[in-house]
């Protein structure tokens, strides 16, 4: 027999609730779900992933940004590892890559392979100073067994497919299709490397029209820090993270407020702090 004196109220579950539909005068394709995440960052769907080590690293952050949301890389990593996760997102897609990763021809191939794996790229422009002298791609390395040989000995250095600085994505697409290659090296009048456009990036822009991108066409990503992680903040900003999240269980505290204020005073980047649960906070 139930003891009614111990029942303080009636509870309901999700299955007990029905959202009643009403008339609408537009179709789903006309719905605008854009929202402002911060003063300077707008997302196209109101979805932000949790900064948890079981939830958000670069893979989810990339997928979420492609669909219009944003991922927050968790902080349960070394500073260097978290910085790499941010870099993977920022370099996963580009419009025109103005600062491509480069190597010099005297370095060993093993260095290039390590960099390709860390940055998730399949080709690296090779320069002497700022002058373009070749490109090293995975195709060049496909049957190579000695990873100690110099890049100069295996890189592609003749018949390079290049375009002038200022080449648009549409122009690049025509050049790449004509020459049946996947990477277009941009050079200025002095033969210096000025940028890089890849067919993969061109395809991604068309495949994900609602993706959240920064002014340079790269996917946006956030990263979490603790209340004392000043070196972590510096490293993440160096990796060009879009937003810093001061992540604690109780955001309405002295340490959180001081950390958020320090970031704003020293860097030109938007800051999110939390968790908070009251209007006063």
At the fourth CATH level, what is the homologous superfamily of the largest domain?
Aldolase class I
CATH topology of the largest domain, which one?
A: TIM Barrel
Helix content: 25-40%
Q: How many DSSP-defined strands?
A: 11
Extract low-pLDDT stretches.
none
Assign the CATH class of the largest domain: Alpha Beta
Distance between the termini: 45 Å
The coarse silhouette is elongated
Oligomer: single chain
What's the architecture of the largest domain in CATH terms?
A: Alpha-Beta Barrel
How big a fraction of the residues is strand?
15-25%
- Overall residue-averaged pLDDT value: 92
How is the biggest beta sheet arranged? 4 strands, parallel
Number of helices: 8
Number of domains: 2
Largest beta sheet: strand ordering: 3-9-10-11
Concise synopsis of the structure shown:
By secondary structure, the protein is α/β, with parallel strands linked by helices. It has 2 domains: 125 residues, Aldolase class I (TIM Barrel, Alpha-Beta Barrel), CATH 3.20.20; 98 residues, CBS-domain, CATH 3.10.580.
Topology:
Blueprint: E1 35-36, E2 42-43, H1 58-67, E3 72-73, H2 79-90, H3 109-119, E4 123-128, E5 131-137, H4 138-141, E6 162-164, H5 169-179, E7 183-187, E8 193-198, H6 199-207, E9 222-225, H7 230-238, E10 243-247, H8 254-266, E11 270-274
Parallel strand pairs: 3-9, 6-7, 9-10, 10-11
Antiparallel strand pairs: 1-2, 4-5, 7-8
Helix pairs in contact: 1-2, 2-7
Model description:
Helix 1 packs parallel to helix 2. It is built from eight helices and eleven strands. The chain has helices at 58-67, 79-90, 109-119, 138-141, 169-179, 199-207, 230-238, 254-266; strands at 35-36, 42-43, 72-73, 123-128, 131-137, 162-164, 183-187, 193-198, 222-225, 243-247, 270-274. With 281 residues, it is of the alpha/beta class. The protein has two domains: 32-93 and 212-274, Alpha-Beta Barrel (TIM Barrel), CATH 3.20.20.70; 109-206, CBS-domain, CATH 3.10.580.10. Strands 3-9-10-11 form a four-stranded parallel sheet. Strands 6-7-8 form a three-stranded mixed sheet. Helices cover 28% and strands 17% of the residues.
């Amino acid at each position: 027999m139930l003891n009614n004196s111990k029942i303080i109220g009636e509870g309901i579950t999700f299955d007990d609730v029905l959202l009643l539909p009403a008339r609408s005068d537009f179709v789903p394709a006309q719905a605008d779900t854009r929202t402002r995440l911060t003063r300077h960052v707008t997302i196209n769907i109101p979805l932000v992933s949790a900064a948890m080590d079981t939830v958000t690293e670069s893979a989810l952050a990339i997928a979420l940004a492609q669909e219009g949301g944003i991922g927050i890389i968790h902080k349960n990593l070394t500073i260097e590892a978290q910085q790499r996760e941010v870099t993977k997102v920022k370099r996963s897609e580009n419009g025109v890559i103005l600062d491509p990763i480069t190597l010099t021809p005297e370095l060993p191939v093993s260095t290039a392979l390590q960099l390709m794996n860390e940055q998730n790229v399949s080709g690296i422009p090779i320069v002497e100073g700022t002058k373009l002298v070749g490109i090293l791609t995975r195709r060049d390395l496909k049957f190579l067994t000695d990873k100690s040989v110099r890049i100069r000995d295996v890189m592609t250095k003749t018949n390079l497919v290049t375009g002038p600085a200022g080449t648009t994505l549409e122009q690049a697409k025509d050049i790449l299709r004509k020459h049946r290659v996947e990477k277009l090296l941009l050079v200025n009048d002095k033969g210096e490397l000025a940028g890089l456009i890849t067919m993969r990036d061109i395809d991604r822009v068309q495949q994900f029209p609602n993706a959240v991108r920064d002014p340079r066409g790269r996917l946006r990503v956030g990263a979490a820090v603790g209340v004392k992680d000043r070196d972590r903040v510096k490293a993440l900003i160096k990796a060009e993270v879009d937003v810093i999240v001061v992540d604690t269980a109780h955001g309405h505290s002295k340490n959180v407020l001081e950390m958020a204020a320090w970031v704003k005073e020293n860097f030109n980047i938007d800051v999110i702090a939390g968790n908070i649960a009251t209007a006063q906070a």
